[in-house]
Specification:
3 helices; 3 strands; about 40% helix
């Protein structure tokens, strides 16, 4: 069976994690998790599973939230 992917925008990821959009952009820049685009001019999307994996692998820890 194919697993469904939950996609988040930067705004959606920020809301989900209760941080600012610049914080999400910083984490993307720092390689905490990966950004995807459907096409070169499309919006940036993030897999929710990548965020969960970053938390589980300790690349993203709660005390770092809200600093950006």
């Amino acid at each position: 069976m194919t697993e469904l992917i939950r996609w988040l925008t930067i705004r959606g990821a920020a809301h989900w994690l209760a941080v600012s959009e610049p914080t999400i952009r910083n984490w993307l820049r720092d390689g905490v998790f990966q950004a995807y685009r459907a096409n070169p001019r499309g919006r940036i999307l993030i897999k929710a599973s990548d965020i969960v994996e970053a938390m589980e692998s300790r690349r993203l820890v709660p005390r770092a939230w809200g600093k950006g």
